[in-house]
Amino acid sequence: MRLHLIIMSILAILIAQPALGHEPPVGLATEATREANAKVAARLPISEPSDFEDATRGRIAQIEGGIIRNAKGEVVWDANQFAFLKGEAPASVNPSLWRQSKLLAEHGLFEVVPGIYQFRGYDLAVMSLIRGDKGWIIVDPLTSVETAAAGLALANETLGKRPVTGVIITHSHADHFGGVAGVLSKEQLSDGSVPIIAPTGFLLEAVSENLLAGNYMGRRATFQFGQGLPHGPTASVGSGLGPGLPQNSIISLAKPTREVSPGDDPMTIDGIRFEFVDAAGTEAPAEFMFYLPQFKALQTAEVATGTMHNTLTQRGAKARDMLAWTKAIDKVLREYGDKADVVFASHHWPTWGRENVKKFLANQRDAYRYLHDQTIRLANAGETMTEIAEAIGEAEAQKSDFSTRGYYGTNNHNSKAVYQYYFGWWDGVPANYHRHVPVEESKRYVAAMGGAEKALETGIAAFDAGDYRWSSVIFNHLHFADPSNAEAKKWLAASYEQQGFQAEAGSWRNYFLKAAAELRKADKAETSILRPRVELLRAIPTAQLFDSLAVRYNPAKSQMPGSSIQFTFPDRSEELSLQVRKSVIVPRIGEKLAKPSASVTINRSDFDRLLAQDISFAQAMQEGLVKIDGNPLVLAALFAALDEPPPDFNIVTP
Description:
Layout: H1 2-16, H2 31-43, H3 50-56, E1 59-61, E2 67-69, E3 75-78, H4 95-104, E4 108-113, E5 116-120, E6 127-131, E7 136-139, H5 145-159, E8 164-168, H6 186-191, E9 196-199, H7 202-212, H8 214-224, E10 258-260, E11 267-269, E12 272-278, E13 288-292, E14 297-299, H9 322-336, E15 342-344, E16 351-352, H10 354-380, H11 385-391, H12 411-423, H13 438-448, H14 452-464, H15 468-481, H16 486-502, H17 506-521, H18 534-537, H19 542-550, E17 564-569, E18 574-580, E19 585-589, E20 598-602, H20 604-611, H21 617-622, E21 626-630, H22 632-640
Parallel strand pairs: 7-8, 8-9, 9-10, 14-15, 17-20
Antiparallel strand pairs: 1-4, 2-3, 4-5, 5-6, 6-7, 11-12, 12-13, 13-14, 15-16, 17-18, 18-19, 20-21
């Protein structure tokens, strides 16, 4: 009996300890992940068919071969990359996300109602086309010039060629305006002959996100959307919001001919009446929805779509006002719920039938309201941000209505964003107010755990127990304390991968799997989402363009502080002064300096080409595109003091 107890004790010790030579799995779902995903499949009505009926309803055409190319012949979009999305979910994909990804893979030109069509499945977003008296009114022309042009071409080939007589941009995110140059010519973009309608503040917010903070957001967006990852059961299966972002593409921007303010009267464009509903500060700082009485159709932009959205995105953005968000949805429910026969948005597929429309809007409102109110309730009871995220649970609608589930935003990180919106980044705990930087903190953690070898054993034991959240924290400290620790790096990648395999949110899955890929292969091939190309720069007001240069100013590189530069842009009849100070540069639009250190005369169109690096400064001088009076070294010193931000800065490594 005693011998038996000794043997059992030894076996228990051996089972509890990581085996010698134990290697982390790569590309394989562990038993813990299989069990976690199986529980999701058992808890949700995965086989419910109505979404599949709606996602395929009204399809009238597809792009032959499913491929869109750019002018160089490079592939911008290939719908065939999602052909693997068939049958039941494999163990390496959350079954709820698998279901959503199958729906998003449905592609083509769809009729919403006679006169309203959608181009879906070839971009992150959806482009809608409304048949006016004379032509097409385009709603949200996608992310890229190439995909938007392909959508318009498919509509013209299928439904008869018509000119574009209006463009509606519902909000200030690039996947809804980037393709505008694919549906309008350069002349139309510059002469204002075609109305381009956007919400008030659109241009300011579009520039703020995509230029001022664009490099940082762009790098993190590669994780959020899984740029560079292959598509497949152990890789990216989409973003949850849409199938993905185009590649090898051009992003453009147009200055609206009119920005719609709250309370503005309805507008008629090409015979179609638009009743706009302000939604600023909800999903985007500048956003509106609209109702089309001729079609009894409600367009909800990105305020109400086929997923729980983000209160704060993984790429980073301004935290959003979830209370205002719920009130915007409730407003259109009250005003149009008994009028609309269909609701369609700038992502996902429409919902038909008046009762279904009202249910959709009510459930969307309730899901966001639940998150907002319960976060504040728990915070007022003294709970911290992370404690609230663990305790928040789900609204009742989320248990059966897939449009409210967290395929893009999640209850967990959205509740943290609500907390941040009201209380800031700090949880009130003094120890968390002035922490060490990650590398220094990690060195101290590893030392406190008894050194690298002991910490590694503890991390592996947590991994083997299926506690990937904890194992990734341990391995991350090991990696940051000593990047040369190959074992820690391998296990960190494996911990991220299993969390990706379990994630219901496509954005979470992409972020974890992209992190694992970079740890394993140093894969940084796909970097910037938004590039400062001429098509984007030419629409940016000069004052904001120079604000974007000011955030690149590095005082340590400044060689001529105290100087001043006068810029003249003849093609825009604009003057701008620039004061170069020791710590900042201060641009002032419209100011004419009496005695500048240097004066620069150049067309804004050529200045844009310089910034986009389409031409060099020497080339511009040689071709007579720029004239400099005064001390030319002042200008050289200014540009030498501007940092060129690295598009592939480290995220998962120190």
